[in-house]
Structures are given as C-alpha cells and as structure tokens.
Write a structure and sequence with these properties.
With 996 residues, the chain is α/β, with parallel strands linked by helices. It contains 39 helices and 14 strands. A 10-stranded mixed beta sheet has the order 7-6-5-4-3-2-1-8-14-9. Helix 12 runs parallel beside helix 14. It is globular, with a radius of gyration of 34 Å. The model has no long low-confidence stretch (mean pLDDT 86).
C-alpha cells in the first residue's frame, strides 16, 4: 500500500491489515455480506472464531458491516450487525475501562469509515484503534475527549436521557439502529424518539429491538400539532404502561390507533406537498439568484432525486435545505478554489459562501416568511380538504388522544409560548397535560424560549397546590395581558378571569401522585451545526474526573435536580461464606458486594434561568467543530519527513523497543557514573531491568495458570509486552531518583544514614520514595485510584522484605569470604537494587494475585454467557422433542443429531458452535479449565449430564468439519479446523473424566 508508506517511514503490518479490512469492506459490500457468518450471535467473541481473525480485525469488520447496512441494508441486517458490534466491542482487552474503551473503539472506526479516500488520516486512526484496543486508560481518555464523549461509570449507573429526538423515519439523519448506537456511545440510558403525526410500525420495531440489544430504554411517541390563538402548538404523546416491544406493536394495530395514524399521514402528505412546492419555487427563483451572487453553475434540482434523498423519512424543509446544500457544496468548493487562485481580496464573498449552511439556506429561501404566497402547511385556513387534525384546539387533541386504547403521557412543548399561554392551555385541557418540556437544547441554541423561567415558576406553583400563590400568579398574568398591546388581549383577559373564578378546580389539577412533570430534551435530528447533539446527564452521577471536566467546559446547563444515591449490599456469589453474611451486618459490609444506584427525586428538576452557573445537568453532546462549509481552511500539505517519523506513526514493536532503550539510558548512566563496584557499574542497569522484566513476565504467567495451564497456551501469549515496555520505561527513570538522589545524596551525604548504622530507616526512605514515584507515574498513565494507592502501599510492605534481603546478602558476602567492611560497603552500594527487588517481589505477589483474579472473573463471565446459551438450547430441545428424553439422547450423539436434524437443523448448528466455543475456552483462555471444573461441580447430576452430553456432538467430525469448511468462522477456517481435529478427542476424554 504505497499511500501508507507515504505516512510513515516504517509502516506497521497491523495498520496495513486493518486498513485493508476497512477498504475491502467499504468497496465490496457483496463480499462483506458473505463474511456475516463470523458474526453469528451464537459465536462467542472470545471463542473459536479467535482462530479465524484477531479481535481488533473482527470488530473493525463488524462495524464496517453495520455502517454499510445503515445506508443500503435491511433493518434485519442492521440489527444483526449491531449485535455483532456490541459483542465484539464489550469483550475487549481492557481491564480497567472496558465500556469506555468499547465506546472509543467504535468512534475511531466510524471515523475511519468516514475518512475513506484519505489514507494518511485513516492510517493515523488505525494506529489509534490498535493502541486503544489495549485499554490504556490515558489513551482512552484522550480519545474520549477528542470525540466529545464523557467518561462514564463502568457499571452504567449514571442518569442520562433525552426525551425527544428524531430518526431518519421523520426528519432525522440516522436510521433507528444508528440512532440507538450513537445514543449508547454518548451514554444515554433513556431515549424518547418521536415521529411527526404518525408512527411507522417498521421503524418503531427496529428502534425498540435496537434499544433491547444495546440496553437503552426507548419510548416511542408522536409529535402532534394543535391550533391555539392562530398559531401551532406542539404536543408529544407517549404511551404509558406498555412494557415490551410486542405489546407496543400490537397496540399500533388496534383499529382506533390505525384510524388516528391515518389522519396523521394525511397531515404528513400535506406537508410533503408543501415542501415539493418549495422545491419548485427554489428552482424557479433562487437557483438563478445563487448562480449570480456567487458565480456558480447550479442546475434546477430534481423532484424524484429529492424524494430518494428523503427515503423513508417525512419530507421537511430541513430535508430540502440539506438536499440543496449537498448540491451546492462541491460547486462552492470549486468556486472558492478558483477565487483563491485568481488572487485579490475575495474575503466578503468567501465569508458568505462559508455561511451558506443548511440552516442558513432554510432561513433565507425556505421559510414561511420567505414565501408567504405558499402559505403555512400547518394552517388549514379555509381549505375544505385540509386534514381535521390541523384544526384541532389543544382540548380537541387531548380528547382524541384520550380515546386511544392505552394510557398516555401528554407533553406540551412551550416553544414560542408565554407562561400565561401555557396556563391557559392547561386550563382548557382540564389538567390532562402530564408534562411540560422544560428545556430543549435546539430551542436554546436558536433563542426560541425566552419565558422558560416564568413557565417553570408556574409549574411549581401548580404542583405546590398553594391557592394563594396560584391566585397571585394568575392576577400577575392578567395585569400583564391588560397592559399589553396584543390584538386578542380582551379574550385572553376574559379567560384569566374565568380561571380566577375557578381557582379550586385549577388547584386540583395536580395533586400528590399526579404532579405536572418536566421533560428535558435536545430535539436533535443529527443535522444541526449550531446546537449540541442529543443527550443530557445528571452530573453528580458521574465519576469525579468527569465532573471536573464538565465544570471546566461549557456543557453545564441552567438546570438543577436532586440526585438520590441508594446503596444495596448483598452476598457475593463467589464468596466462600455464601449466604451466611446475611445474618451479620458487619460481615455483609466487609465481605458482601455493594451496588450503587441513582434516581431523581420526584418533582425536583427546575430551570435556574439563562446564564445560571449553579446547574447540575449537563449536555452530553459537544458543539459541532465545523459550523461552516470548511472553505476557508488552507489546503492540506503532504506529509513531511518529520511527520512520518512522529512517535505515534512508528510500528508498535519499534515503539516498545524505544521505550526500553529510553528507560535503560538513565539507568545505565546512573550506575556507570556513580558506582565504584564494577558489577553494578557495568551490570547494575541490566540487573535492575531484569528484576522488573522477570517480575512482569512471571506474574502474568502465574496469573494465567502457571505450569498447569493448557499446553496450547504459550507463556508469551499471557504476557502483555506493552505493559512490560511501559514498566521498563518508568523503572529506568527511577534509578537516578532512588540510587543517586535518595540513597547517595540525601541519606548518605546529607543525613549520613547507611546500611551499617540505620538499615531499617534507609530501606524505609527508599521504599517511600519508590512508592511516591510509582504512584505519580500511575496517575500520569491514568490508572484508577485503587491501583495508585495499592502500588504505594506495596512499597510500604516491601520494607521488611528489603531488610530481609539485605541480611541474606550480607550473610552471602561473608560466607564467600568478603571482609566485613567490604561487605557493608557492597551492601550500601546495592541498597537501592535490594529495595527494588523487594518491591517487585511484593508487587509480583499482589499483582499476580490480581491478574489471577481478573482471569478467573473473565473466565466466569464468558463461561456463564456460553452456559446460558446451553441452557436455552436444552429448553428448546425439550419443547421440540416432547416425547423423547433429552438426557438419554445426549449420550447418543449420532441419534441426537439425526433426531434434531429432522426437526430443525439450526439447533444442531447451535449445539456445535457452543461446544466449539467451550472447547476453545478450555485450551486457550487463561484459568478456563479451573473455572469450568468448579462450575460443573456446582451443577445437579442432570444438568451436568446435559451440559457434558451436548458437547459430544463434537464426535460427529464430518458434520463439524463441513460446518467449518462452509464458512462458520469465515474464510480463514484453516486454524480452527486444525485445532478441532487435533484436540477434540483429548477434550472429550477430559469431559468424560469430569462426568465421572
């Protein structure tokens, strides 16, 4: 790939392979579809398919498949790809930030796909992806910041939501699956998705399924319009009490709902016709204006092309503005280039061209004010053919919604309304409005809600039920109306006087248990260049690091709520004490697991006023960086030699070797220039590095199973060589600190503390200095607080070990015939090395245990994920074979396969996949054999019989081989087939021993 060589002097093979996957997948969609068997949800991400492709490459292929299907795939293809992406992303190699790492990996890959054709940028993104896939916290946090993402708690207990967004089936840019993926990436846990006038059942189905896959709770609603005092007022209607997707879709088929939606479709069709007339007017009037103003050659735009651009969406002025912009942009770029090449001052023209974004096009050429002769499609006027829905008063709308066969939440959007208007609508509707949209990010960006503070005060007065405050508020509204110059002020005043005479009824609208709630939203369509994207988050529910970042940024909104933290303690499932801890609160507190959950206090959210700085709700989305057409940026320069030699563009192995060399230099120079004992002068740095390197290798190998591990699990596969390189880099810089500055300058020369007079104090000071240094570079690397504190105290624990090592070394010197004074001198010279050896001994024990615990926990998680599929398969077999004994059949795999194949071949395929994955775990995943034996030991005899018996399907070698040859794990099946044929007999023999 010559383009890759232009970006780096030493192209990385991994980078090249990842770029090839992205390029091949984006250019050859048919071939990409042929590899979808690799993303079968039954195949575990860390199972047999690891032999067909490394995790990073599989995840890249899965996401490219998802992004490709977003444009030309079916809903089923999009959902299958979404499942694969989620599985691959969440089963990454990060121990500390797995969820945040998954979010970063997906964002980087999305950026790679968007950058097709720009090989230098794609290569840099590929390096970021491969580096981030290791889970390094510092890099993950840097990439989170790059993509305007906030670091979220790994347990996902934060509160983040958005009560109104739009997808591509209305006016949004993203398909339902894409919308849910982006919501998950931002950290949104609750999402309200609305459609104008009617709900498309297929879009709702896809949306709800995608939410189930990603763990995002989705509510689907309708955006309706009523007429209030000659202007449109918007209501959002959401079903209430519907608990699952099946029930929601069944309700959409109810005759009353079908009739309601049909009336909404008439409104949508009327609006589409209006947009098409706008397109015709634009072609007739504004195309020539634009060509003359900017010197362009824009041709009239085609109606059919516009309708294809809208696709399944509901045609809107925003769609038309984007369609026009898409046609204009290449011509604007060409014109800008020509003006720059022509010379002279064209800054004014270029500035106007830069500002000609979709929002500007919509305001200048497509608004009702720009073309009053076309009328307002939401104003029925005297049109006898206008849909009846457009003539509804808010009271009529609420009445119609009340006739639907399910309970609803009715949200009033106060955009363009004053507090008195909102109160009048609530009064007209008899208090049946359940929520007010208290804040909308898009309205805030466009300054369309100047009266929010008064509206929120009104909401709180209604909820408080204080009739005195209510009367004062209504009288204040009445005074304002009477002093205004509104044309309908007399009618407004009359209605307010009616309210004053009916205060007890108004007071009773919202009582305890039925408050007027609030909704906060972005109104995002994914198209705006001026407002933040979707999502709001309650700041106190986020990690401290994220809270500090929010307070330093401009994300805080003038909104405040009360977040309530609940702590639940329960026995740990892995504790040996079991349920006995329940009887003792103290034991439960010490040995039990703790779950933290956040909730919002009821009726606690309030608007603090524009410019308020004491809010505790923040926007999840960032402000778009490119708010113009990107015409004013200078042209990109080709990569220079210096940029090609940049650190991040070097191959991973070269960077690891460089880290070792960089760390070795100060270590060697310190020993060489300060030691008078030739052993340390020449080999001190080697000894120092050997201690660190061997400790890292040994702890990783022991944590992965030690000498009793699987014969296929090589020791070097268990070692994170990147972690070893980082350790050697930082340990090299500790030599001048510990051996020279602390031991020699501070203790020996300044305080006269040596091994001979104060050995305990000497090793204590060195250990504390080492602990401080280790903690500081742990903080620099972004490690969690627990690791930082643990590494400091490991140095404290190393003090007695260092004293013991010193005593042993002294005895060894004396036993070798070294004079006492010389032995003490040699001990003094070696003090820092002995302290380092003690520290790494303790670290090896502690971190080796931690590595073992992580491997065991990971094996438990993966094993139980696979065992859940086995249990589901067993249940379906029992249903499929009601007159047969599954327990008896599993002992006869040939008969089982023949019986099941006659009923459904998919079950046989699933059984084989599950068995292959467990076989792969047994041989290739650290500690998996130990965990599997423990899990099997806890099963009942029947459960054990079924689990082990179902895996005997692997005895059908021809059938399994045909599946692998047929593309079960993709095109690269050779290693998986070889592994299966070479190891299946030994594996089944091991299972037979377990069964006995």
């Amino acid at each position: 790939m010559p383009e890759l060589r232009a970006t780096s002097i030493l192209p990385d093979a991994e980078v090249r392979e990842l770029l090839e996957i992205v390029r091949e997948s984006t250019q050859n969609r048919k071939r990409q579809r042929a590899t979808r068997t690799l993303f079968d949800p039954t195949l575990h991400p860390r199972g047999i398919k690891e032999l067909a492709a490394p995790p990073a490459m599989r995840m890249a292929a899965a996401l490219v498949d998802l992004l490709g299907s977003l444009d030309d795939g079916s809903a089923e293809e999009r959902l299958d790809a979404l499942r694969a992406v989620r599985q691959e992303a969440l089963h990454n190699r990060s121990d500390m930030l797995p969820v945040n790492t998954a979010r970063v990996l997906i964002e980087v890959l999305k950026d790679m796909v968007r950058s097709v054709g720009d090989t230098p940028r794609q290569a840099d993104l590929a390096r970021d992806f491969l580096e981030a896939s290791t889970g390094k916290p510092r890099l993950v946090r840097r990439l989170l910041k790059r993509y305007h993402l906030l670091e979220l708690p790994e347990n996902g207990n934060h509160i983040a939501y958005d009560h109104r967004v739009y997808d591509a089936s209305s006016t949004g840019r993203k398909t339902p699956t894409h919308l849910i993926l982006d919501a998950w990436l931002k950290g949104i846990r609750f999402l309200g998705v609305v459609y104008y006038n009617h709900v498309p059942p297929r879009a709702a189905d896809e949306l709800l399924q995608a939410g189930e896959i990603m763990g995002v709770k989705v509510h689907v609603g309708i955006d309706l319009t009523a007429r209030f005092r000659g202007r449109p007022v918007r209501f959002l209607v959401f079903p209430r009490g519907i608990t699952n997707r099946k029930e929601y879709l069944e309700q959409l088929q109810h005759p009353e709902v079908v009739a309601f939606m049909a009336e909404g479709r008439r409104v949508t069709a009327r609006f589409q016709e209006h947009v098409l007339r706008l397109l015709d007017t634009f072609n007739e009037v504004h195309v020539a204006e634009l060509n003359e103003e900017f010197g362009l050659d824009l041709e009239p735009l085609d109606r059919d092309a516009f309708l294809r651009f809208v696709g399944s969406g509901q045609a809107s002025r925003l769609h038309l503005a984007e369609f026009i912009h898409e046609a204009l942009l290449p011509r604007l770029r060409a014109r800008a280039t020509a003006l720059r090449e022509a010379g002279g001052d064209h800054s004014a023209v270029l500035a106007r061209m830069e500002a000609l974004v979709p929002e500007e096009i919509k305001a200048r050429y497509l608004s009702v004010q720009a073309h009053p002769e076309l009328g307002d499609p939401l104003d029925p006027g005297d049109d006898p053919d206008a849909p009846a829905m457009l003539s509804w008063h808010p009271r009529d709308l609420v009445d119609q919604v009340g006739r639907l066969p399910f309970a609803t939440r009715i949200v009033l959007s106060p955009t363009g309304l004053r507090a008195a208007d909102v109160l009048e609508i609530i009064y007209d509707c008899g208090g049946r409005i359940t929520h007010l949209e208290l804040f909308n990010l898009r309205d805030q960006a466009e300054h369309r809600n100047p009266d929010l503070a008064a509206i929120d005060r009104m909401r709180r007065v209604l909820n408080d039920g204080n009739i005195i405050e209510l009367k004062r508020m209504v009288r204040a509204f009445l005074d304002d109306v009477e002093q205004s110059e509104l044309g309908d002020r007399e009618d407004r005043a009359r209605r307010l006087r009616q309210m004053l005479a009916d205060l007890p009824r108004v007071q009773g609208f919202y009582t305890v248990g039925h408050r007027l709630g609030s909704r906060l939203s972005s109104g995002s369509t994914g198209r705006s260049r001026r407002s933040r994207g979707m999502g709001l988050v309650v700041v106190p529910t986020l990690p401290a690091r994220t809270r500090r970042r929010i307070h330093r940024s401009q994300r805080l909104l003038p909104l405040r709520t009360v977040a309530v933290l609940s702590i639940t303690r329960h026995p740990s499932p892995h504790s040996r004490l079991g349920n006995r801890v329940i009887d003792s609160p103290l034991l439960l507190r010490i040995f039990g697991d703790r779950d933290l959950s956040w909730s919002i206090a009821r009726n606690a959210t309030r608007y603090e006023g524009a410019g308020a700085a004491n809010g505790n709700i923040a926007a999840l989305g960032g402000v778009p960086e490119d708010q113009g057409n990107d015409l004013l940026k200078p042209p990109t320069r080709p990569p220079t030699l210096r940029s090609r030699l940049a650190w991040r563009r070097l191959p991973r192995r070269v960077r690891m070797a460089a880290k070792v060399v960089i760390g070795f230099i100060p270590a060697f120079l310190t020993f060489y220039l300060t030691q008078d004992w030739w052993v340390l002068a020449w080999f001190g740095a080697v000894i120092w590095f050997a201690i660190t390197g061997l400790r890292n290798v040994i702890q990783s190998v022991v944590g992965g199973g030690g000498v009793v591990r699987s014969p296929l699990l090589r020791w070097r596969d268990l070692v994170s060589w990147g972690r070893v390189a980082d350790s050697l880099l930082f340990t090299g810089f500790s030599v001048p600190l510990l051996d020279y500055l602390v031991k020699t300058v501070l203790l020996d020369r300044s305080l006269h503390i040596t091994v001979s007079n104060q050995p305990l104090l000497l090793y204590t000071v060195i250990a504390l200095a080492n602990g401080t240094y280790i903690s500081s570079h742990n903080i620099f690397r972004g490690l969690p607080r627990g690791a930082v504190i643990g590494n400091f105290f490991r140095s404290v624990l190393s003090i007695p070990v260092a004293v013991a090592y010193s005593a042993l070394a002294e005895r060894a010197f004396l036993a070798a015939g070294v004079p006492v004074e010389t032995a003490l001198h040699m001990l003094q010279l070696s003090a820092a090395v002995l302290s380092k050896a003690a520290s790494d001994t303790v670290a090896g024990l502690i971190e080796g245990s931690a590595d073992r615990a992580r491997n065991v926990a990971r094996a438990h998680q993966w094993m139980h994920e696979k065992l859940d599929l086995f249990n589901d398969l067993h249940a379906r077999l029992e249903v499929l074979l009601p007159e047969s004994s599954v327990i008896e059949l599993v002992d006869k795999p040939k008969k089982l396969v023949r019986t099941v194949q006659s009923e459904g071949e998919a079950l046989v395929r699933e059984a084989i996949i599950n068995a292959l994955d467990l076989m792969y775990f047994w041989y290739y995943q650290p500690r998996a054999q130990t965990v599997f034996r423990k899990v099997v030991a806890t099963m009942s005899p029947d459960e054990r019989e079924v689990l082990l018996g179902l895996q005997r399907v692997l005895e059908r070698k021809r059938l399994v081989s045909e599946l692998l040859l047929g593309g079960l794990v993709g095109r690269r099946f050779e290693d998986a087939l070889s592994f299966y044929l070479n190891r299946v007999d030994r594996y089944l023999a091991a299972l037979s021993r377990l069964q006995k």
